[in-house]
Amino acid sequence: MIEILNLSKAYAGSEALAVSGLTFSVPVGEFLVLIGPSGSGKTTTLNMVNRLVEPDGGDIRIQGQNILESDPVLLRRGIGYVFQEAGLFPHMTVAENIAVTPRLLGWDKDRINLRVHELLEMVQLGDGTFGSRRPQELSGGQRQRVALARALAAKPPILLLDEPFGALDPVTREAVAADVRAIHQRLELTTLMVTHDMTEALLMADRIAVMRDGHLVQIGTPRELVTRPANDFVAQLIETPRRRARALAETLNA
Ligand SMILES: Nc1ncnc2c1ncn2[C@@H]1O[C@H](COP(=O)(O)OP(=O)(O)OP(=O)(O)O)[C@@H](O)[C@H]1O
Ligand SMILES: [Mg+2]
To answer: What domains are defined for the chain?
Structure first.
């Protein structure tokens, strides 16, 4: 369970709050999607959960423990993070990238090799040719799959994903998204994912949290947001997929 309580953050040199009075929780096993326009504070929120950014106010608790009082290194061992750009180390092979955390944890070579093999299978790159390649020898979708494998290497119970499919073509995007959702389910993860694609949010989320200007506007299941949007902003946002489908239908029928 991740509990976020009255969280706020203002970056140095900026008067506006990047995140302001944010409160919500992610129960164990839930897939929560954070959605909102560019600059609404989504990445800042994820970075505070992982302590890459320190909050100015409020609390974050994981399994009841205040994360600001825990060792950041230990904290991050329990959290897999897939960054907005895959963020692989370019000088390392795929296998070395995936093995970064297990190596830090001092796993022996056989255990690491076994785990890397298992993870490549899990993200559907298990044909034996990928482990020795470097990130620049992969497609964008393959890079994202490796980033996911790396995030899950040490079996963290919590997964944070920051627009993990942003750079992918629609077909690959759907495939990777379906895999992520299946892996979440199979590993019984607690997942917090950022996107600004409402279709993706509706299809993947147990609950959706809508952010705007650093604030939480509404949180609820896809059905709740569709049937009872809190205001016009949420109504517009939730209508986007249908609006696009209608525009498409009109174009095709014209
Ligand atoms: N390191 C930083 N220093 C100063 N301001 C920052 C920094 N990082 C983000 N900001 C500002 O904080 C606000 C929130 O940024 P954040 O990256 O959290 O938005 P976001 O919702 O993730 O946007 P996007 O969808 O474009 O990724 C923005 O106004 C941004 O300019
Ligand atoms: Mg962002």
So the answer is: 1-70+191-254 (3.40.50.300)
